[in-house]
Design a protein that fits this description.
Mean pLDDT: 94
Number of strands: 4
Order of helices and strands: HHHHHHHHHHHHHHHHHEHEEHHEH
Structural class: mainly alpha
Low-confidence stretches: 1-5
Strand order of the largest sheet: 1-2
Helix content: 55-70%
Strand content: under 5%
Number of helices: 21
Largest sheet: 2 strands, antiparallel
């Protein structure tokens, strides 16, 4: 297999992407899949905002509105933000630690296809006309009485997608623990790798409760399990505990990789080592630990009692401390630095005040007596979006501009990037800042319309206009991506000029085996150290050039995930349709046969020969 790009037929290229186990290609697939669902979720958000543009609006019905808010929240959290961040983890983290690939390439591919088919399964509910309508949290009191198969789509689709995410988390943990290059101690790892490590550990502990809760919900709805039905001895509130034991760590699973991206950006574009690196690492770990201690602040109004409320209120305020440490370290990284106002840096600078605003309202809602007043109001909607959009989505947009040249070898337009930045940032604050006041003025969330004369007209109009500006910004970004790929102007290894970590020392995009020779890591920001000492390549090899062992691609992850997808339909329609039970049985056989083939397959991979590596190095040398 030559790493020299050759023209291939569409079928050959499609087969390559369907069977790839290359972490970089799987990362790109995650970005494409997550980006698609991001657009879907954005369209749902625009429909919600236009429904609330004027009082007594009848653009969509109350039932459709419930479906929209359910699918918007579910899509954005599970199918957009999380997969896009996993995409960045896939592409960047193995390069930062000097690895050839992740520890389990086959499972990496299986994780992506399970996410993809789970997301498609969930969104096919629109075409069947039975859509989840119990809110993105799907509280048991609503989900148990929901007619049709809407909530079944939710439960089964998220179980399939969530299984893929859990595989990814385990894979990243094993990769970071076992596959770091020589000299890459834990305290020399880049901050993005550290945040990937902690977020993956949180996935390991947070996703099993969600899986169990969805399993219980599926059994309640389909087999009369009565886990959550209080009339049959169940407990409705247990669903809230199970969901938020997953749900609050999920917030930090989303925000920590964004923190990692911003840490890289502040260091690169201030031309300085990250200030307070050890305290940043400690703060990251502490956020991961405390993230599991605060779930019941979502449940202050269910009657847990003053003692429980007080404990979770104090824990909520405590988690603001390590976040504050990070904020001050980022500011001090910029202090005295030689700052370049690139598009990624603009996002990073805008992120700090935006996220602080979300954090302050979080501490307000963490105060139990105040939460009683603000509960289920638009103030909560505003807070949540200031954290998720003002933190995670700004981090995603910054990461897209920062790592695009490394992934694709082309540079997104800085001019168009700044247009996207200003439209999105101004639109975001217009959309959600006013919603704090709407909440204080008494507007409840999850209402599909409101009467005239309640003082909410102007606030909703401003909020909808802000959403339009955000949509324009995202549209400009899509145009930027398309035009950049059409022009196809190639860039150097380190297109930003000040890269500090290993990914910036290899060509853009990297060859499929990443490093011709395993690098020797000589300190924190190892590439920067090499540059300062006059080594323009940025890498000191830890080994001579030799044959490299690589894994073979496989179609089994795609087939196995499709089997789970088919099985999901069989489970839902097993008693209603004549084809339901055969599809269920056939889907399970499909899955087990795929698993058996994988288990019996003697796949030892292949070797990239020393001669091919030398040819690649000679080719790259000839391009200089």
């Amino acid at each position: 297999m030559s790493s020299v790009a050759q023209k291939r037929s569409f079928g050959a290229a499609l087969w390559d992407w369907l069977t790839t186990v290359d972490h970089k290609k799987i990362g790109i697939l995650y970005l494409l899949g997550g980006g698609f669902f991001f657009v879907v979720g954005g369209i749902e958000a625009m429909i919600i905002r236009f429904q609330l543009l004027t009082p007594n609006n009848d653009l969509i019905s109350a039932g459709t509105f419930n479906e929209m808010i359910t699918m918007h929240g579910t899509t954005m959290i599970f199918l957009a933000a999380m997969p896009i961040l996993i995409g960045f983890m896939n592409v960047v983290m193995p390069l930062q630690i000097g690895a050839r690939d992740v520890a389990f390439p086959f499972l990496n591919s299986l994780g992506f296809w399970m996410f993809f088919f789970g997301g498609v399964f969930l969104n096919l509910s629109w075409f069947i006309g039975q859509v989840p309508d119990a809110g993105w949290t799907s509280y048991a009191s609503l989900s148990l009485i929901s007619d049709g198969h809407g909530v079944d789509f939710y439960a089964i689709g998220l179980q399939i997608a969530g299984g893929g995410t859990l595989m990814g988390g385990i894979n990243f943990l094993v990769t970071i623990i076992n596959m770091r290059a020589p000299g890459m101690t834990y305290m020399r790892m880049p901050l993005f790798t550290w945040t990937t490590f902690v977020a993956s550990a949180m996935i390991l502990f947070a996703f099993p409760p969600l899986t169990i809760g969805l399993f219980f919900l599926t059994f309640d709805r389909m087999f009369g399990g009565n886990f959550f039905d209080h009339t049959m001895g169940g407990n409705t509130i247990i669903w809230e505990h199970i969901f938020w034991i997953f749900g609050h760590p999920e917030v930090y699973i989303l925000i920590l990789p964004a923190f990692g991206i911003f840490s890289e950006i502040f260091s690169i574009f201030s031309r300085k080592r990250l200030f307070g690196y050890p305290s940043m690492v400690f703060a990251t770990v502490l956020i991961g630990f405390l993230g599991f201690m605060v779930w019941a602040h979502h449940m202050f109004t269910v009657g847990l009692g003053p003692t429980a409320n007080a404990i979770f209120s104090v824990a909520t305020m405590a988690i603001a401390v390590p976040t504050g440490v990070k904020i001050f370290n980022w500011l001090l990284t910029m202090w005295g630095g030689s700052i370049k106002l690139t598009v990624p840096m603009l996002y990073a600078i805008a992120f700090i005040p935006t996220f602080i605003m979300g954090g302050v309202t979080g501490v307000m809602l963490g105060t139990a007596p105040l939460d009683y007043q603000l509960h289920d109001s638009y103030f909560v909607v505003a807070h949540f979006h200031y954290v998720i959009v003002g933190g995670t989505v700004l981090g995603i947009l910054a990461g897209v501009h920062l790592y695009w040249p490394k992934m694709f070898g082309t540079m997104l337009s800085e001019g168009l990037g700044k247009i996207t930045f200003w439209f999105f940032l101004v639109g975001f604050h217009l959309t959600f800042l006013i919603q704090h006041w709407l909440g204080l003025w008494g507007m409840p969330r999850r209402v599909f319309t409101y009467m005239d004369g309640q003082g909410w007209n102007s606030g909703n109009f401003i909020s909808t206009m802000g959403a339009v500006l955000m949509a324009i910004g995202v549209t400009v970004l899509v145009y930027n991506i398309i035009i950049t790929q059409i022009k196809n102007v190639r860039v150097a290894n380190d297109p930003w000029g000040d890269g500090r970590t290993l990914e910036w020392a290899i060509e853009s995009p990297p060859v499929y085996y990443n490093f011709a020779q395993t690098p020797l890591v000589r300190g924190l920001d190892t590439v920067w150290i090499e540059k300062l000492e006059g080594n323009e390549s940025g890498i000191t090899p830890a080994e001579p050039i030799q044959d490299i062992h690589m894994p073979n691609g496989s179609i089994i992850p795609f087939i196995l995930s499709m089997g789970l997808f088919v099985t999901g339909f069989g489970v839902m329609f097993r008693t209603e349709q004549a084809w339901g039970l055969p599809v269920l049985i056939g889907g399970l056989l499909w899955v087990f046969i795929a698993m058996a083939v994988r288990s019996l397959q003697d796949d030892t991979g292949y070797y990239v020969t020393k001669e091919e590596i030398l040819r690649d190095l000679k080719r790259k040398g000839g391009q200089k």
